[in-house]
Amino acid sequence: MSSNDSVHGMWSSRFMFILAAAGSAVGLGNIWRFPYVAGENGGGAFVLVYLVCIFLIGIPILTSEIFLGRAGRKSPINTMQGLVEHSGANKAWNVIGWMGALAGFMILSFYAVIAGWAMSYMFSSASGVFVDIDGAGASSVFNDFVGDPAQVLTWHGIFMLITIYIVGRGVANGLEQAVKYLMPALFLLLLLLVGYSANTSHFSEGVSFLFSFNVEKLTWNGVLIAMGQAFFTLSLGMGAIMSYGAYMPKDSSIVGSATIIALIDTSVALLAGIAIFPLVFANGLEISSGPGLMFVTLPLAFGQMSGGVIFGTMFFLLVTFAAITSAISLIEPALAWLVEHLHVSRLRGAILVGGVAWFVGLGSAFSTNIWSDVMVLPGMDFFTSMDYVSNNIMLPLGGMLIALFSGWAVDKSVSQDQLQLSPGQFAIWEILVRFIAPLAVGTVFVMTFI
Ligand code: TRP
């Protein structure tokens, strides 16, 4: 396969690639979703399964996605087509690219809704709504906000427009530069929140909820959700990282990059958990309160600390930013394909993809208000159904297929040339993607659904 540059542009260095991929990985999944799904699924044991999935399944598949992308240098759909042809593999493998683009739409559709919540909270913080608020007050501010379709829709639309604008201009210039300063700032603010939490009376209770591995609490559905969270948080299984890999310089270590990305991502998630859970216990809140968890706990902390108005505003600004650097990677696979296939400009392509995702997202925007009684899957509203199917089924399935394709179907000359591992290291990676990762995903599917 060619090792020339991609038509869409290239990252200027390996560091820029890592930054962009970490920007994709670190997002609402870490700060908003991880704590609330861990809370809903009993804590410790769930977190353990999540960590095992990150290291045993996540890093090997991350490696595969990056090298497939770099070998193909196109949108995931065309990268797959090229590699399938080059390797003389069955055309059915092309489903990886197509299913990925579909999953991207589905995830972006609800992702933009939650990112809109975060944007709105930035302004609430700035206007002092949370000063000296108590648990009941924070809950009712949240419920009033998500219960109002006009507000949710406004912020959802604004977030999508910003995303479209940025992807439309191309990722190479503004974005990574900004991420370079904003991600460390987000990290520091999280540490500040952890410091605040550490001084509440329930710190050890919160931390032990996160780390005491009592296996009795875990169901197979909980294991499925932990695995889905591992895929979601690493942006894995739908081609986002494959399309970022397509813009990666030729001579830089892929396994090393994948490991760094996973470590950054995991530490942000764990810090968010350590910041949030003690506040839940200290304020008598419900740990399994679902998607609202972060939006109720953190305003409490900001409301009580000195300088909380500024810190709170900054924090939600940074969460918004983390969401943008993730949202662009959800659009990129379908957008790059449109540019290659229909030769539309990036801006037009972005308007098209973003417009469709915005429209589908209306269902999620209405799930907390006028459509809160409308169930799509049994017992799940529109938002929950989209989230469940994309994260717990499509991403692990896509990831499993990527592992199998990279381990069995693609020409070994391609994987060896891309990965540049010693024979021993290559053998370990091969065992992980040929057997361990697919078997793990397959087992969880069978145990959950049969
Ligand atoms: N990883 C991001 C987060 O944790 C979300 C995300 C961006 C994503 N791109 C993705 C999830 C691709 C799945 C697939 O917030």
Strand order of the largest sheet: 1-2
What would you call the shape? globular
Mean pLDDT: 94
How much of the sequence is in beta strands?
under 5%
* End-to-end CA span: 41 Å
Question: What does the largest sheet look like?
Answer: 2 strands, antiparallel
- Compounds present? tryptophan
Structural class: mainly alpha
Count of helices?
Answer: 18
Low-pLDDT stretches are none
Amount of helix: over 70%
Radius of gyration: 21 Å
Secondary-structure element string: HHHHHHHHHHHHHHHEEHHH
Would you count the extended β strands for me? 2
Describe what this molecule looks like in 3D.
The chain has 450 residues and is mainly α. The chain has 18 helices and 2 strands. Strands 1-2 form a two-stranded antiparallel ribbon. Helix 2 runs antiparallel to helix 10 (220-233) and helix 5 (95-126) crosses helix 7. The protein starts with 13 loop residues before the first helix and ends with a helix. The model has no long low-confidence stretch (mean pLDDT 94). Tryptophan (TRP) binds next to helix 1, helix 2, helix 10 and helix 14.
